[in-house]
Design a protein that fits this description.
242 residues; mainly alpha; 0% strand; rod-shaped
Length: 242
């Protein structure tokens, strides 16, 4: 009887390790089937207990992944505020999940889309501080933070110039902002274009009026010269007749 138990345990172990191999190459569908075979064929072994534990982990992981994917879908559908709520709920419920850094990244992106840039930076920083973040995502997030900070620098510079009435320089500063929907950029650029157009029209009018004044002056000079020449031409004749 003992010999049969040993053989059964060995067969169960082999079946379990076979399932693990599929697990390691992330062929989870086949792995789950193999774990289920361990449970069905060798239900009284320790390997069946381990297989049950692994299947329970699968179910939990699937539930976590489903919740995460549902929140991401809201992002993709541009339901940004609802996505932020769902992502925060996910993070609070599964703080140790490997998906938390990505959830925070997605949340930061949502904040960017609704122009809450300070909140976006804070959320991105939470992702950077998480222990499970991978190097590739870390580099992406650092770039996003630097991009927002760079845009904010040009935005503030543009606002200062705009308030001073330096519309051309203000526009140059604003156009250096990568995110053209940054804050109230579209409205400001529209206002600047209007001011520049009015300034241009005023300049053209001033130039036209100045040109008319110069033309009048030239005509006056020409007329005075003509009269003087005519007078000089007549005077010798008048002297001769005297």
């Amino acid at each position: 009887m003992l010999g049969c138990d040993i053989i059964t345990s060995k067969l169960a172990q082999n079946q379990f390790e076979k399932a693990q191999k599929y697990d390691q190459v992330k062929d989870h569908e086949i792995a789950m089937k193999e774990y289920q075979r361990v449970i069905t064929k060798y239900s009284n072994t320790i390997w069946a207990t381990k297989a049950k534990e692994r299947l329970t982990e699968y179910k939990n992981q699937n539930r976590v992944k489903h919740q995460f994917d549902s929140a991401v879908e809201l992002c993709q559908n541009k339901e940004y505020f609802m996505a932020i709520i769902r992502l925060e709920e996910f993070i609070q419920e599964y703080p140790q999940s490997n998906l938390v850094p990505m959830a925070l990244y997605r949340m930061g992106d949502c904040y960017e889309q609704v122009k809450r840039f300070n909140q976006a930076i804070k959320t991105y920083q939470r992702s950077l501080d998480h222990q499970n973040i991978n190097p590739e995502l870390k580099n992406i997030i650092k770039w996003r933070i630097e991009s927002i900070e760079e845009d904010e620098k040009w935005y503030q510079q543009g606002i200062v110039l705009f308030k001073k009435g330096n519309f051309s320089e203000a526009k140059s500063a604003f156009l250096k902002i990568k995110e053209q929907n940054y804050k109230d950029m579209p409205r400001i650029l529209k206002t600047i274009d209007k001011e520049l157009q009015e300034s241009y029209q005023f300049l053209l009018k001033a130039q036209y009026e100045e040109q008319i004044r110069q033309t009048r002056k030239e005509k006056q000079k020409e007329e005075l010269l003509r009269k003087r020449l005519e007078k000089e031409k007549e005077e010798p004749w008048s002297e001769e007749w005297e």
